[in-house]
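Format notes (please read before filing issues)

Several people have asked whether sequences and structure tokens are stored in separate files. They are not. Every record keeps both together, in the order shown below: the sequence lines, then the token lines. Line labels are part of the format and must not be stripped during preprocessing.
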Amino acid sequence: MSFTIEEKTEEFERLKEFLDSVEIAAEILPPGKLTEEPSLLVCLPSVEDAGREGEIRPEDLHVAAGYFLNLDDTEQRLTKYLIFYTQIEAEFSSMSDLEILTLINQLNRTVRVGHYFYGKVDGSDAAVVQYRTTVACADGEPFDEGVIGDTIVEMGAGYDIAKETFAHANKDRETAAEER
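Then the structure lines:
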């Protein structure tokens, strides 16, 4: 039931080929680049789509990293897991933790896939907002490309929703502060 680095890389290559065919930009990072395992970076919108609309700005790119969850011998199941996560690049420095968590709770009630997280992550001193999702697949079977593609599209929408929610919340706070 172990999923080797070679098998993970082959699975990412197969998924990347599909994502390329539906114009979702993707790149496979070899072990050691992002994590000790191979990773799949995906970007929405695709570079080609953004290029047709004008100059690509960093804030327009929604980058998500995908990796396979490693289970030890005591955790092995009949399922393998592919996790995608992205960090929401938004301004929330003027908001309290309670306000941020309240918005996160509201956002978590609206997304169809995945969940939002607020807190410290490995290697970070500051709390961040992440959007994460997990796709499961029967062990020994390939991941369904359509499910992966839809998950990535949903993540792109979820990123936009969260970014806009925090932008409006900050604007509302600034307006309220000006009115005082």
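For reference, the curators noted about this record: The chain has a mean pLDDT of 84. The longest strand covers residues 128-138.
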